[in-house]
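Technical note accompanying the year-one report. For the benefit of new consortium partners, we illustrate the data format agreed upon in the data management plan: each record pairs a sequence with a C-alpha cell string. No post-processing was applied to the example shown here.
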Amino acid sequence: MVKQIIQVISLIISKIIPIGSVLVFNSFPDFTDNAYAVYKYIIDHQQKFDSYKLIWLTLNKEKAQELNKLFAIKNEKCRAYCRFTFCSLWYYYRAKYVFCTHGVFGLLKLSQTNKIINLWHGMPLKGIGVFDKISDNTKADITVATSDYYRDIMAKSFRIDIEKVFLTGQPRNDLLFEMTDFYSFYGIEKDRYSKVGIWLPTYRRSFIGKLREEGIFQENKISYLNFNDLESLDILLQQLKILIIIKIHPMDFLQTIEFPTYKNVLLLKSLNSNIQLYPLLGSTDFLLTDYSSVWIDYDILNKPIGFVMNDIEEYKNDRGLIFDDLENLLPGEILSNTDQLFNFIYNLDKVRYKSKNLFNKYKDNNSTARLLFMLNL
C-alpha cells in the first residue's frame, strides 16, 4: 500500500514540475560506463548543447563533492548531488532525459514518456529483467542495442516495444578508441612488455546490493585460480614479458580479500576515479573474461579473447543465461582449468579472433552521436 501511495504522489508531482533544459546522469559505479560516455560527448561538444544543465546523481555526498570540484574546473553548467537529496529529486523531475546504467528512483512514477534512457551496462549474457531468475528490477522508456540480434532481447528484457530499442551501439564503446592515462598514473612502462592483457571476471558471490551467489564460488580464488596458481601465472608472465591487469568486479566478494603482490599480475579492486576503464580496455592486446558482457564490447577490436570459466552449467542454473548454446556463440576458447589458461597465454601469437558477426553492427566510435541524434538532442 505504501508503494502505491508513493507512486501516486510521484505521478502528481511529475505533472506539476515543468520539464526544463536539464539532462540527468547516474551510473554504478559513479561517473562511469555508458552514462559517462554520453556526458563526455556532450562536454566535448558543449557549444551544441550549451542550453542544457548537466546533473550527476551519486551514491554518496563525498562523491558528489569530488565531482563538483572537477566540474568547477571543466564546466560550470555541471553539478553533482547525492541521489537521496531534495535537489536530486528536483532535477530528476525537471529533466528532459535521465541517462542511467542500472536505474534510478525506480519506485517513482512519471507522467512524462521517453524520459528514462536506461543504457544498461552491457549487452546481456546473464538474465536481466524478465530473464533474471532472482531479481527483475529493470526500468526503461528507451534503451540501446548493438545489433539486430540483441535488439529483440533488450526489448523483451525491459518489456518495451522494439521501436524503443535504438540500434546505435553502446556509448561506452566510443571510449575504446581514446587514449588512456592508466599507465602513466600507475607508473607502468608499457613498452617493457611484449603484450598487455586485461582480465575482467564477473562475481560468483556479491557482497553489496542484492546479495547473491552464482556459479561456483570458492574462497580466495579468482575463478578457479588460488594464490599458488596466481603465483605460477606470474612466473609464466615474467618469462613471456606479458602484463595482465586483473580488475575485480565492484560487487565481488573478492573486494574484501587481501591478495599477495605480484610482478606481472596487477590486481586492482577499483580504478582511480580519474581513470576510465574503456580507454584502458582499448589499449590492451587481449582479454580474459567469463560471463561478463565486456567481450561483446571487445568484439569491436577483433583481438584475442579467452573465456576463463569452469562452471557454465552451475551458472545457468543459478542466474540463467540468455543463450542456451552460449558455448557455440563465444568467439574464443573456453579455458576451464589452469593448464588451458596457461597454454592460451603461452600461444597468444597464434590465437586469432573468431568473429561471429552477430554482436556489433557498428565497429566505430559514433554510438553516442547516433543515440543523441535519435533523441533529437
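Partners are asked to follow this layout when depositing records. The chain has a mean pLDDT of 90.
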